[in-house]
Amino acid sequence: MSFKLYGYERNPRTRIIRILVGIQQQYSEKWLMQSVKAEAEGIQLAIHQVVPRQGIGKDDYKSKFPLSAGKIPGLEGPDIQLTETLAIAMYLAKIANKSRLLGDGSIVQEAEVLMWMSWANQELLQTLARWFLPLIPSFTDPAPYSMGPRC
Prior knowledge:
By secondary structure, this protein is of the alpha+beta class. The chain has helices at residues 12-21, 58-64, 85-95, 107-132, and strands spanning 2-7, 24-27, 33-38, 43-49, 74-77, 80-83. Strands 2-3-4-1-5-6 form a six-stranded mixed sheet, with helices on one face. 21% of the residues are buried.
């Protein structure tokens, strides 16, 4: 199966998806797109560069994923468009025969794995970002995650 992953190399949420799939990178001449293959699992993943803070690919991404509010990553594939790291990770783990990533197959262990994934995504990454992002000069604009609800 062939998928497009929208995000960028240094984004921790995009990196989670890339690690999950167990990718091998092949860099193209342009930094705007990387081809990534997880052939052992039957998944082809093309990374499309989207860096919201720098405006790279932002408008195209928001037109494809209007409910994302600019948050990455996003996954586009045959008959599916997903945003949110946990949804993408769960989907790819199940179709990539990586069900052991979700525990022993029982509903209890799958729920516990989901609990820890949710905690890491919502609590740990947010805390680490508040500590370290102010130290990086290029990260002066607030991320879509820290702008609060858009009602």
